What we know:
The protein is of the alpha+beta class and 182 residues long. Helix content is 19%, strand content 35%. It contains four helices and eleven strands, in the order βββαβββαββαβββα. It has helices spanning 41-48, 85-90, 115-120, 166-180; strands at residues 15-17, 22-25, 30-35, 59-62, 65-71, 74-79, 97-100, 105-111, 137-142, 145-153, 156-162. The longest helix is centred in the last third of the chain and has 15 residues, at 166-180.
Amino acid sequence: MANVAIRKLALAGRLGGSATVRLTTAPAASRVALRAPAESLAALSSALGLSVPTTPKTSSRAGARSALWIGPDEWLVIDEAGADLMAALSGAGTLHSATDVSHRNVAIIVSGPGAEATLSAGCPQDLSLSSFPVGAASRTVFSKAEIVLFRTEEDAFRVECWRSFSDYVFGLLNEASHDAGH
């Protein structure tokens, strides 16, 4: 019988938070870093089954799939159902660059009435609901780690970070969540 290595998911089983904040590791998802010129967006939107956003700090969603605006010609596409995004994009028939980053990233869900305060402890952006509404998305930093921040509900955020920074980010979020509870 052959030995089979089983990859342990980053942050597997980790839970954290406080009385006002819950930290959970999001289930595995498919992710693609997408780059494309404006004239390719209609075909890419059709291939993905959602409208690729063109306004800074916005996102679009269809079912379990989200496209987050990251830069003038850059998006992070996340499919929480694990669909093959590379296959969907391969048939777009238009100029674009797509890189599967599913195994590079880990997502941490920060939720509860203290979620905004928890993230504000390490993120320099104004995360108030008026400045960063539901559906807002941005590449930013949390302390010294680059993250992609996505507000999914009034009191819930998805924090995408590189796997190699996930312990650091989770630990800081956990510490900040306790401060947010006071």
